[in-house]
Amino acid sequence: MSDVGDDLVRLYQGLRVADVSDGMDALGRRDVGLVDRAIRPIWLGAAAVGRAVTARYVATDEVVPTMSPEEYAEYSGRWYRDQCPYPFLDLLKPGDLLVLDLSGLEVGFWGSNVGLNAVSKGAVGVVIDGGCRDTEEVALQKCAVWCRHRARTTVIGRLEFESLNETVNCGGVKVAPGDIVVADDDGVIVVPQQIAADVARAARGELEADKRGRRALYETLGMALDESVQ
Q1: What homologous superfamily is domain 3-224 in, according to CATH?
Q2: Where along the chain do its domains lie?
Q3: Residue 28 DSSP class
Q4: Model confidence, pTM
Q5: Does residue 4 or residue 70 have the better pLDDT?
Q6: Cβ atoms of 11 and 196 closer than 8 Å
Q7: Fewer CB atoms near the end CB (10 Å): N or C, the chain?
């Protein structure tokens, strides 16, 4: 991604999804970019801001034949290589956030192994309109994942790769490569890159006003100040 994308990501550091939603409202984009609330974090406390790298996968119509376990092991390897590769792993750079359109299917496309692989390439998180499995390990590793389903299955005989870094539909939201994605416990919001700088400025104003108001209440109540009001 471009240096402009890096600059936009920095504008969003520390902003909450709620702030960004308010910033979109301020620019007349009410309810735009709000990803379906069914797409939730695997573990509470996860937060991520990044520029979108997108991929789309669709249901397959191929029928898996009956075979021996040894044959199936070879078949599975071919499926991951030919029908359902993960080509985005070769594109990832620090500050990228994966947005995966799995057609909403309850298939375990994501898990603890690929999650660490993506982190090693610089990904700050992943938003999946589909399934993630190994969820206990994902939480233990603190890989930031938002998904529609906690799944059990593999992609073999279920999903095929369709496109990379094209516009996708994630939770009812149009997401283009380079759009800004913000995700936390409240859910996920996507900001079109063309208006991202203006939205960030408005959102920052909302955050700072909120901090001032809550800091005054902390002091009135005798509460120790924490990072959320500093």
Answers
A1: Ribonuclease E inhibitor RraA/RraA-like (3.50.30.40)
A2: 3-224
A3: T
A4: 0.94
A5: 70
A6: yes
A7: C
